[in-house]
Amino acid sequence: MVEYFAGLDVATVESALCVVDDKGDVVLETKVASDPASIAFALHPFAGGLRRIGHEAGSLSPWLQRELKVMGLPVHCLETRHVRAALDAQRNKTDRHDALGLAQMMRTGWFKSVHIKSEASYRLRLLISNRRNLKRKFLDLENAIRHSIKAFGIKIGAVSGRLGFDAKVRELTAYDPVLTTLCDAMLRARAALWAEYTRLHKLVVQVTLKDELCQRFMAIPGVGPVTALAFKSAVDDPSRFRRARNVGAHFGLTPKRWQSGTSIDFTGRISKAGEGEVRTLLYEAASCLMTRSRESCSLKRWGQAIAKRAGHKKAVVAVARRLSVIMLAMWRDGTYFEPGNPEAPPRRPRKASAPRRVMKTKTLSGPKAARA
What's this model's pTM, rounded to 2 decimal places? Predict the structure, then answer.
């Protein structure tokens, strides 16, 4: 029986579909609507021998993966770095050629599948990302106001609080009706962003208060509601990591290495792979644990020891990586955070050793030497 392998280059409206047989010969090249039903209908003639379908990770990937799985199709979501490395050998990059390359990757088996998170995790990610976007736009408007009125010699300087910034801007621009009108429009937009940001932040706090796992995460010094919820939504399933220490590499908190032969072996900075938002939150949590938290724990002392010999930033990265390992282990084993000994055990004083006795030898000569 002939086996078939399909590659799908997904786009927003139409997707390129290519099907090859077990010898690599193309049996179908077409365009289909980016809809699970249309894709399944186009692959129906090959249903008996269809072995694998591959599509690259993208914005539509979670939806297509779930729907095609429900229809019983053997679909795989491919890691973008592997796909990019395989398709870079093509002379011309088109949707048709990309679909053919994906189909050949599925035939040869040279691919790595990506974990598709649950729908609940994607909802939590959307909540966190929308909260982050509102905060960034809020700060962008504030910086735009500061920069725009510098042309008139107005320097706002340091102010405390959101309302303090509004009052300072209105006070400094009160002499000019035009500046007052323009800045007032920006301040109203900024206030609206802050109101919506506060609403989403309260929702994050409410979700974490009802989640038992997030409550256990927040018992770790430095870990707050946003960090706990972001870590949970990013991992989704702790069993997909064979070892707890692998989660540090998953979030790009391990050093990169470049080795070739015997003359090149370079270990660089962290890889920064995976989700940058979770990595940033873990770094902030580790920094808070190292600098702001007054609680004493073995993790903090371990980071302080690294800071003495390698610097503060490297110590914070190491603590962030250790935090991710601890949180995954807590999730997987159902355990709670244990701070360890409140204080490091004092070193026992070293006993003064008695002076060593040196045996002196005499060289015998004359009649004594003869008797010996």
Answer: 0.84
Cα radius of gyration (the chain): 31
pLDDT tens, residue by residue, 25-83: 999 999 999 999 999 999 999 988 999 999 999 999 999 999 999 999 999 999 988 89
b/e sequence 48-65, b meaning 16+ C-beta within 10 Å: eebebbbbbbeebbbebb
Instruction: Residue 127: name the closest of 41, 185, 174, 196 by CA.
Output: 196
317 contacts 283 by C-beta, under 8 angstroms: yes
Give me 178's structure tokens. 């035009």
Q: Is residue 184 within 8 Å of 190, Cβ to Cβ?
A: no
Which residue spans within the chain are E strands per DSSP?
4-9, 14-21, 26-33, 50-56, 75-78, 255-260, 264-270
For residue 326, give the nearest of 313, 314, 339 by alpha carbon: 339
Average pLDDT over residues 121-145: 96
Mean pLDDT for the chain overall? 89
Distance CA 249, CA 253 (A): 6
pLDDT of residue 294: 87
Dihedral, CA of residue 165, residue 169, residue 171 and residue 173, to nearest 10: 180
Res. 371: pLDDT tops 80: no
How many angstroms separate the CA atoms of 15 and 9, rounded? 6
Q: What is the DSSP string of 55-88?
A: EE-STTHHHHHHHHHHTT--EEEEPHHHHHHHHT
- CA 204 vs. chain centroid, Å, equals 19
Contacts of 332 (CB under 8 A, 6+ apart): 238, 239, 244
